[in-house]
Design goal:
Layout (H helix, E strand, L loop, with lengths): L2 H6 L14 H12 L10 E6 L2 H10 L5 H4 L2 E8 L1 H9 L9 H24 L3 E4 L2 H4 L1 H7 L6 E10 L27 H7 L1 H13 L1 H9 L5 H9 L2 H17 L8
Antiparallel strand pairs: 1-2, 2-4, 3-4
Helix pairs in contact: 2-6, 3-8
Length: 260
């Protein structure tokens, strides 16, 4: 496909055919990830490919019981990784650091760039993917199951396989609501209302069209999409809890050395 077709045709696929992905095809997808931009060309990330059904069953809980973890034939986890770099430095009599928060951010960005290259390559090959925020939210559980050593943290991951559904592409905010020219221009109330108008309507329609989501919305007395996001989906309490999980795991994985 043309690259614009791939980009604009993206959908999150949650239902998969019971069909394997060949190693040859998977290698082409992974090679695309390895060609992604990388800070200093350090490639401070690692990619963990999980095919084993029993291991994916264990990861199912850590991924908040999302069905695609076990239904898709492949789960790919992209990790910030300075373990490999630090070993190379040591072998070459170079100072061994990269054990701080800035290093984690560099690795996380590298991992995310690689993941998007893989995602685009997979969709270009006719496969479907679904990114999972649970990779970072439950990084400690996932790290343990994937046997990650110090200086390695799972950042982003997705399921991969042949799609068994054909969902419509989701709406996106208009370009003028996201892109700023020269400098950031803050938004007026009227501009915010206009930018989110379509999202408000289509997002609400999607919840009302799903009996389970509609029941939850009515039970909680939610009146609009903004309330769904902050009262039902991404609560303050859950974000505080996940934030602490990530910070604790970064310290455990030797990414919080403050130089003292």
């Amino acid at each position: 496909m043309e690259v614009n077709e791939v980009i604009h045709g993206h959908r999150s696929i949650r239902k998969y055919e019971d069909r394997d992905v060949s190693q040859e095809l998977l290698d082409r997808i992974l090679e695309a990830g390895i060609r992604a931009s990388s800070s200093g060309n350090m490639q401070s990330y690692s990619i963990v490919v999980t095919r084993d059904k029993e291991l994916r069953k264990k990861l199912y809980s850590a991924h908040m019981e999302q069905s695609m973890v076990v239904d898709a034939p492949v789960l790919i986890t992209f990790c910030a990784d300075f373990n490999r770099m630090r070993k190379w430095l040591s072998l070459n009599d170079a100072p061994v650091h990269f054990d701080n928060y800035m290093s984690f951010l560099i690795g996380a960005i590298d991992a995310t760039l690689a993941s998007q290259n893989c995602a685009l390559a997979a969709e270009n090959e006719g496969l479907g993917i679904c990114y999972m925020g649970s990779t970072l939210a439950n990084c400690d559980q996932i790290g343990e199951l994937l046997n990650l050593p110090e200086n390695v943290v799972p950042v982003v991951g997705f399921s991969l396989g042949y799609s068994a559904e054909d969902p419509a592409p989701r709406d996106r905010l208009p370009q003028h609501g996201i892109v700023h020219h020269e400098q950031y221009q803050d938004y007026s109330d009227e501009e915010i209302k206009e930018i989110y108008n379509e999202r408000n309507e289509k997002g609400w329609e999607r919840y009302m069209a799903n009996p389970k989501l509609k029941e939850m919305t009515e039970r909680l007395g939610l009146k609009n999409l903004a309330q769904i996001y902050t009262i039902a989906k991404y609560t303050k309490e859950s974000h505080h809890e996940f934030s602490q999980t990530v910070l604790n795991y970064l310290e455990r994985q030797n990414f919080m050395n403050n130089g003292q």
